[in-house]
């Protein structure tokens, strides 16, 4: 047991002594240094090969560095381009935002103007509606007043003309003009309404009886009423009318046709059958 321990201690002592003396031997003894290097060559690469490998490694590192630098510069260039594009987009976006804000402002202004115009239009529409209603009401009142005035004017004109015809004919033509009035007790003339007064103008010349009606205007109803009055007169008085005459400035076309069918002579703004009437006189 003691021999291995002693041997280990001896080996350890030898290593320490070798590490202590080896550097001095390599430095001072060239022959020993050469032999030592020759002894260690199998364990280490040669200097030339090591330098070549190192140079190759440096070249590869240089190439990688240059490639990395190139790629880095390219990345920086692209980044700068992207930044410029982004800045341009931001600039355009800001311009568009300003334009949009301006358009929105103008749209708000136009909306306010449109609302004001709509409000004024509604006010004008209401005023126009009120004015229209007032005009309609005024027109109705005027129509009623004009109708009443026309009726009164027509009645007065008929009476004035009747009186003028009566005076002229009696004075210059030696004919007799009479106003005939009779009560229709049976309602034969006025559609079943008894008690109405039937009025006619009678012109008598040499025993010939001419029944006339002088009106401001004549409708189909007026012609039928005149025809019933004549028949009422003939039946009640037992006399036959030689001529039936209507005198009016305004006669409806259908009323003219009906007069022709019933044999009634009409004097209006266009004389109808005037020659026949003159020959009868």
From TrEMBL:
Residues 47-141 form a coiled coil. SUPFAM superfamilies: Restriction endonuclease-like. Transmembrane segments: none annotated. Pfam families: DUF3782, PDDEXK_10. PANTHER family: CRENARCHAEAL PROTEIN, PUTATIVE-RELATED, DUF3782 DOMAIN-CONTAINING PROTEIN. This is DUF3782 domain-containing protein. Keywords: Coiled coil. The keyword Repressor does not apply. InterPro entries: DUF3782 (IPR024271), PDDEXK_10 (IPR012431), Restrct_endonuc-II-like (IPR011335). It comes from the Bacteria.
């Amino acid at each position: 047991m003691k021999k291995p321990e002693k041997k280990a201690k001896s080996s350890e002592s030898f290593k320490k002594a070798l590490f202590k003396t080896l550097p001095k031997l390599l430095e001072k003894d060239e022959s020993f240094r050469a032999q030592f290097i020759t002894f260690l060559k199998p364990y280490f690469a040669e200097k030339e090969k090591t330098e070549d490998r190192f140079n190759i490694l440096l070249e590869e590192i240089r190439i990688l560095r240059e490639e990395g630098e190139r790629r880095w510069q390219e990345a920086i260039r692209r980044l700068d381009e992207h930044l410029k594009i982004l800045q341009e987009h931001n600039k355009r976006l800001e311009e568009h935002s300003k334009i949009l804000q301006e358009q929105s402002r103008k749209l708000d202004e136009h909306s306010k103007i449109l609302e004001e115009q709509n409000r004024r239009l509604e006010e004008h529409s209401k005023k126009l509606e009120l004015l229209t209603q007032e005009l309609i009401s005024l027109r109705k009142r005027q129509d009623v007043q004009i109708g009443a005035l026309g009726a009164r004017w027509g009645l007065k004109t008929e009476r004035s003309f009747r009186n003028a015809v009566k005076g002229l004919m009696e004075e210059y033509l030696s004919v007799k003009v009479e106003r005939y009035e009779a009560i229709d007790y049976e309602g034969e003339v006025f559609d079943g309404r008894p008690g109405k007064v039937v009025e006619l103008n009678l012109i008598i010349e040499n025993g010939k009886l001419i029944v006339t009606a002088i009106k401001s205007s004549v409708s189909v109803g007026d012609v039928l009423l005149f025809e019933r009055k004549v028949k009422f007169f003939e039946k009640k008085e037992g006399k036959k009318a030689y001529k039936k005459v209507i005198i009016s400035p305004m006669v409806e076309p259908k009323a003219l046709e009906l007069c022709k069918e019933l044999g009634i002579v009409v004097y209006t703004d266009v004389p109808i059958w005037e020659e026949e009437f003159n020959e009868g006189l």
